[in-house]
Design brief:
Helix content: 40-55%
Radius of gyration: 28 Å
Distance between the termini: 84 Å
CATH topology of the largest domain: Conserved hypothetical protein from pyrococcus furiosus pfu- 392566-001, ParB domain
Oligomer: single chain
Structural class: alpha/beta
Strand content: 5-15%
Strand order of the largest sheet: 1-5-3-4-2
Largest sheet: 5 strands, mixed
Number of domains: 3
Length: 286
Amino acid sequence: MKARGLGRGLGAILPIEDSVIERSHAVEEIPIDAIEPNPYQPRLDFAEEELQELADSIQKHGLIQPITVRAVGNKYQLIAGERRWRAARKAGLTHIPAYVRTADNTQLLAFALVENVHRQNLNPIELALAYRRLMEECGLTQEEVAQYVGKSRPTIANTLRLLRLPPEIQKALKAGTLSEGHARPLLSLESPDLQLEVFRQIQEKGLSVRQVEALVARLTASPAKKTLRSLPDIDIHTKELAQALTHHFHTPVEVRRKADGSGEVRIRYASEKDLERLLEIFGVRI
């Protein structure tokens, strides 16, 4: 399906038969057990704690926002609102308010994607997979996907590139233990093994996004074999430590670390008086 009427809203992109429009605006109470999940749902994970909190709210206040479904024989299939549907079942509801619409499989994926993108419920990998499905199954270009979901084309392209990362890194992105900002610099590294090495440095040392960018820049700039072990003084905390010590002692400090974990700290002093000041800080009396 090629996108139609891009930029004119979801209704223009996914046209609905005129005979269904009036019905889609009316809220119907339908049996909750007659509803099936959306097989094209781009969101894969639903946090149990969040579902329970919503279920508790529904028990107290009811379900304020209806879900959206399509009729499939004697059943209904979710288009949007799976989280609300799951929570309503937890809350013990037997019927749920819903808009009933007409949609084919392509439109079903599109509705679910757009709802989740706008609600910011998808992790970066789910989002990338959803964009790819829109391109492969709906025949959209990156530019059309961008217009479809209200994002820039470079944003779509950068998100799709995350699918090139090794499975271990993608798993961390899905779990939220690695941010998209940390992952993007890894795409500049050609070797999956090197990407994994840097990823483990991020996890072990708690590197900031800026530190990851600096580390990747050093690795990509090196003409030598691109492994962490091939670069001397690879621990980028060293420079920050030296700067912190220089600020603390008010005099230049150098920190040098070796591969075996040993190293040295050099503190300069400008005069005998400056040396006495440093000795006083260290609590050394001569």
